From TrEMBL:
<dbReference type="GO" id="GO:0015179">
    <property type="term" value="F:L-amino acid transmembrane transporter activity"/>
</dbReference>
<feature type="transmembrane region" description="Helical">
    <location>
        <begin position="162"/>
        <end position="182"/>
    </location>
</feature>
<dbReference type="InterPro" id="IPR013057">
    <property type="entry name" value="AA_transpt_TM"/>
</dbReference>
<feature type="transmembrane region" description="Helical">
    <location>
        <begin position="280"/>
        <end position="302"/>
    </location>
</feature>
<keyword id="KW-0325">Glycoprotein</keyword>
<feature type="domain" description="Amino acid transporter transmembrane">
    <location>
        <begin position="258"/>
        <end position="521"/>
    </location>
</feature>
<keyword id="KW-1015">Disulfide bond</keyword>
<feature type="transmembrane region" description="Helical">
    <location>
        <begin position="83"/>
        <end position="103"/>
    </location>
</feature>
<keyword id="KW-0479">Metal-binding</keyword>
<keyword id="KW-1133">Transmembrane helix</keyword>
<dbReference type="GO" id="GO:0046872">
    <property type="term" value="F:metal ion binding"/>
</dbReference>
<protein>
    <recommendedName>
        <fullName>Neutral amino acid transporter 9</fullName>
    </recommendedName>
</protein>
<keyword id="KW-0915">Sodium</keyword>
<feature type="transmembrane region" description="Helical">
    <location>
        <begin position="109"/>
        <end position="129"/>
    </location>
</feature>
<dbReference type="GO" id="GO:0031902">
    <property type="term" value="C:late endosome membrane"/>
</dbReference>
<feature type="transmembrane region" description="Helical">
    <location>
        <begin position="405"/>
        <end position="426"/>
    </location>
</feature>
<feature type="transmembrane region" description="Helical">
    <location>
        <begin position="356"/>
        <end position="377"/>
    </location>
</feature>
Length: 525
């Protein structure tokens, strides 16, 4: 029936109506987002008809990072504050690459390594700006629900669609392979620690190492040292049981196969939403790693000697020709370009996107610098050489180290919960593209899962080098999503608008050449 609205209340009514409109718009975006991830017959991420989908319930996946659910600290209308947006970006980017940063600094040299972390952070941030702004530069089309692959399809047609799928699969499968190698490593050391503790066995690895409470070892010792896969045990009684354990509990020959029994069935689940509940473990793991690094450095002290171009028995030059190995790792370490639009579209104040993205990148760079520099600087040289820093710096601590044991437990459980989520996304992207259904049949799903798991087992068996895997996959997918596509799209959009200048063209061609050189260098060094 008719009612009267006081003029003083018009503003509040309009604000309420605007909030309802924003909420409805966010809801529609969520429905569209879900429909893009699942086929009509796959209800894994589709809300029932009688339930309104929450606008702040978005899953974001990042290679070598976490599967992050955007659902916390919203303002009740599906929007996040700037601090939450910054934390989500930091949390999504903080992945397993952090374990290889000290090794990368060693490959590049201490001074050059620090410079490269800063430069790669700035370069990837700039390319990320171009990704965020790419869909806004398309005229006369509603691109509010578009992701970056949609933008690639708009500019490059079917080539952009299929190439973005290819490079996305490279990043996902590469991440899953790294996860399998690391899970094998962590499970091996965890099982070894538990067995030795239960049976009261004192085992000393026959590798060079330091003495004292904070022992550091060098598993990749030169061939002049005793074999690194042997152990010496000190206990009385029959040693048959211990020898049998070592035979059936091998890091590369048996443990990678044991994981199949646990993870292959999890990959076949239609909905992985249960595992998303454990995403907080990713943040806990990173925070604990920072704590571990700080405590170890406090006990070991600082061991640095600046030798700019010459190498001695214990220290390395400040500048080394192997620096592209670090840039390959950093390309993936700073990689968020395939999901940054999803993260930022839920920001309450869209005008702060550039600022929030910059702050998040700054925090990520500081975290990488802290872990990498502290581990490198505190590595005890002498008696050990800096060359002993492993591709996974936790391998420089023996399996009976309590703090490292806790870190491995955290990381193992976190990876076992994220692995099915990555497998689900790979399945959705690939099978839906070819068959129009994310779960066409158990045969299709099982075939894909066996192929992915087989790749992980093969790498863990024959090439368990996570630094190498990360830099290859990072340089490959980064070539497309970080360097080439954002630069080309920006140049094309400027050209169509009649605003392209020679400086802009030269700068973005140079960025593309840097990405190409980064990829080629991975296979030459």
């Amino acid at each position: 029936r008719p009612f009267h609205v006081e003029p003083t209340n018009i503003v509040s009514v309009n604000e309420d109506m605007q909030r309802v409109t924003d909420e409805a718009s966010a809801m529609n975006k969520r429905i569209h987002y879900y429909s893009r991830l699942t086929s009509p017959s796959d209800r894994a991420l589709v809300a029932p008809d009688h339930v309104l989908p929450a606008p702040d319930e978005i899953y974001v996946y990042s290679p070598l990072g976490t599967a992050f659910k955007v659902d916390s600290c919203t303002d009740g209308y599906g929007k996040n504050s700037s601090i939450v947006t910054i934390f989500m970006i930091w949390n999504t980017m903080m992945g397993t690459s952090i374990l290889s940063i000290p090794w990368g600094i060693k490959q590049a040299g201490f001074t050059l390594g620090i410079i490269l972390i800063l430069l790669m952070g700035i370069l990837t941030l700039y390319c990320c700006y171009r990704v965020v702004k790419s869909r806004k530069m398309i005229p006369l089309i509603d691109t509010s629900n578009w992701e970056f692959p949609d933008v690639c399809k708009y500019y490059f047609g079917s080539f952009g669609q299929w190439s973005s799928l290819l490079f996305s699969m490279v990043s996902l499968v590469g991440a899953m392979v790294v996860y399998w190698v690391l899970m094998s490593n962590f499970l091996f050391n965890t099982g070894k620690f538990i067995y030795n503790f239960v049976h009261d066995i004192n085992v000393t690895d026959i590798v060079p190492g330091t003495n004292g409470s904070s022992k550091v070892i060098c598993p990749s010792a030169s061939s002049g040292h005793p074999p690194q896969n042997r152990s010496v045990m000190f206990f009385s009684g029959n040693n048959t049981g211990f020898e049998l354990f070592e035979e059936w509990w091998s890091k590369s020959q048996t443990v990678p196969f044991y994981l199949i029994a646990v993870l292959l069935p999890l990959l076949t689940l239609k909905s992985p939403s249960f595992f998303a509940k454990f995403n907080v473990l990713g943040t806990v793991s990173v925070v604990y790693l920072i704590f571990l690094v700080t405590v170890k450095a406090a006990h070991l002290g600082i061991h640095l000697e600046f030798s700019w171009f010459t190498e001695n028995d214990f220290f390395i030059p400040e500048f080394r020709i192997l620096f592209p190995q670090l840039t390959g790792v950093l390309t993936l370490a700073f990689f968020i370009h395939n999901c940054v639009i999803t993260l930022l579209q839920n920001n309450r104040n869209q005008e702060n996107n550039v600022r929030d993205l910059s702050v998040a990148y700054f925090l990520v760079g500081i975290t990488y610098l802290y872990v990498g520099v502290i581990i490198f600087a505190s590595f005890p040289s002498p008696p050990l050489s800096k060359e002993c820093i492993e591709q996974n710096f936790l391998d420089n601590f023996p399996s009976d180290d309590i703090m490292s044991f806790v870190a491995r437990i955290f990381l193992l459980f976190q990876m076992m919960t994220v692995y099915p989520l990555l497998g689900y996304l790979a399945r959705v992207q690939l099978l839906r593209q070819f068959f129009g259904n994310a779960y066409p049949s158990i045969f299709h799903v099982l075939t894909l899962n066996v192929a992915i798991v087989g790749a992980g087992v093969a790498m863990a068996r024959f090439y368990p080098n996570i630094g190498g895997i990360i830099r290859y996959s990072g340089a490959t997918c980064g070539l497309a999503f970080v360097f080439v596509y954002p630069s080309l799209i920006y140049v094309i959009s400027l050209h169509r608008a009649g605003q392209l200048t020679w400086p802009a063209l030269i700068i973005h061609i140079f960025i593309i050449l840097l990405g190409l050189a980064n990829l080629i260098a991975q296979f030459l060094l």
